[in-house]
Amino acid sequence: MALRGLAGSGPGSRGPLDEAGAADEEREAPAVVAAGDAPEDVEEDEGRSRGLLRWDGFSAWLHCVCVVGFDLELGQAVEVIYPQHSKLTDKEKTNICYLSFPDSNSGCLGDTQFCFRFRQSSGRRVSLHCLLDQFEKDLPVYLKKDPAYFYGYVYFRQVRDKTLKRGYFQKSLVLISKLPYMHFFHTVLKQIAPEYFEKNEPYLEAACNDVDRWPAPMPGKTLHLPIMGIVMKVRIPTCHDKPGTTQIAQLTQQGDTHISVILPTLHEVDLFSQMLWELVLLGEPLVVMAPSPSESSETVLALVNCISPLKYFSDFRPYFTIHDSEFKEYTTRTQAPPSVILGVTNPFFAKTLQHWPHIIRIGDLKPAELKLLHSSSLFIPHRPAPPPLATTILLSVSVNLTTLGISREIPKQVKVKKLKNLKTLDSKPGVYTSYKPYLNRDEEIMKQLQKGVQQKRPSEAQSVILRRYFLELTQSFIIPLERYVASLMPFQRSISPWKSPPQLRQFHPEEFMKTLEKTGPQLTSRIKGDWIGLYRHFLKSPNFDGWFKTRRKEMTQKLEALHLEALCEEDLLHWTQKHTEVETVDLVLKLKNKLLQADREHLPVKPDTMEKLRTHIDAIILALPEDLQGILLKTGMT
Fold first, then answer.
1. How far apart are the C-alpha atoms of 118 and 327, rounded to whole Å?
2. What is the pLDDT of residue 7?
3. How crowded is residue 631: how many other Cβ atoms within 10 Å of its Cβ?
4. Last residue of a domain, one of 182, 216, 250
5. pLDDT tens, 100-112?
């Protein structure tokens, strides 16, 4: 399907082998400026001249927009789906209904923003933009979409209204998308939701028409996105960006007409605990019990992204309810808890998920607890090993303290609690687990953060330190694996144009373990501990399985690309002169299949290599008798 804004452009032919850049920052940073009125009919005429269909531009960013309201008889219900042709199954509509409203115990008055994630229905036909898929290899791991899941970005309003029977106006505007651009879509909602609640459907239709005029979400390019009288200037980061940097150009201020808005990073909640990093790395079951969907979703996203640039391959739900279609699957006691991170707010989960091995409890939004939970760092005295029963270890969260108006100070130590005491969401904040970390605590980073608290360092600066720390820790962990997997690649000299590409060698865990003595994480990390034990556990985890499958696919594609290059260097026309017509025709068909494969799988092949191969094919066909030429030319474009 053609996409608006993609004609004559596309990503380069860089290989997808390196994912290590820019994974600690999501710099979708838009600048918001007053927009000139774009003539809609001119835009649509231009789109038609390029063969584009209406709503192609919209579909590149969003699946649909939903309005969820509260009906006294039906409960939560989807009132509007726009565009009207958007397809949602009944199961998907039900999930959206329940996930778009906070639990009643959350007590969210006013405006609340959060996000959720849910599975597409199994019967749904997956239709992806083939051109958008080309961009995937240039994205950092935390911005890559999962075709099997939708994200929901919610702007929920609950205000008193005496004219309504229930006494409250309750409604959510929800953006449904496959793109995990959390803060970008939250910023879009901030621009359109408040006015939508005043102006209703005509305003929503106009906003969707604006989105339909957006260019495709191409990484590395500065995009200008008009939305209801303003333009958002956005740059989607690439995996090649340097960590901690951004290349977004800010607009020049001209009087009061231009307003610069910098989006925050992927999440504002930073969790400082090497133990949590290990739990996420190993794909352990985790549940986050929070007082509101906002804190629940931010915390889950913080956990998922603390292992960047490694992708978290298990399921995660920023906000999960008892009405979710996977509720029974994830809460059953007949089998071990699955590898998933759940964010919940309903007190019912404190009992239902009490058998889970790792539970994070975030405190209520009370002044006393805000001081404790939202300080830049919380510290725990070192213990050689946890007691036999599950204990609580302090959770550290960092948010924008200036906004909250909270003074920064080192909090008092929280007492250790037993897991059996976690019966309700009134339990003390902490991480309830019996897990014994493999690695020793890094005293240097804790001193650095503590010094920052004492010197009243801005929370944003503390967050940057933490993100960079976890980025470097993950890189130190993954580099030995990358080095070993690279050694499984056959030598280039073993690639023959007249044979199938050679296979990768098998991954042997014990062989890998032997490499750690000389080329292990000790070369890049100061942290001591049982690295070998951590690797052994990791090799059995879903994250390793997903990572290795991805790397194996990339390396296999690299071998296919090298095989194509070897073919191009051969004098294929000379080869045909020594072989029969049947063998020549077979060669042409195989070469055409190679071209199709390179295009379909986005192989890391240089454009001139593809052109050389087409030239070879054309030359071979022209050397054949005319009757064969006609047949071969009909088999596909060369």
1. 12
2. 31
3. 13
4. 216
5. 999 866 667 889 9
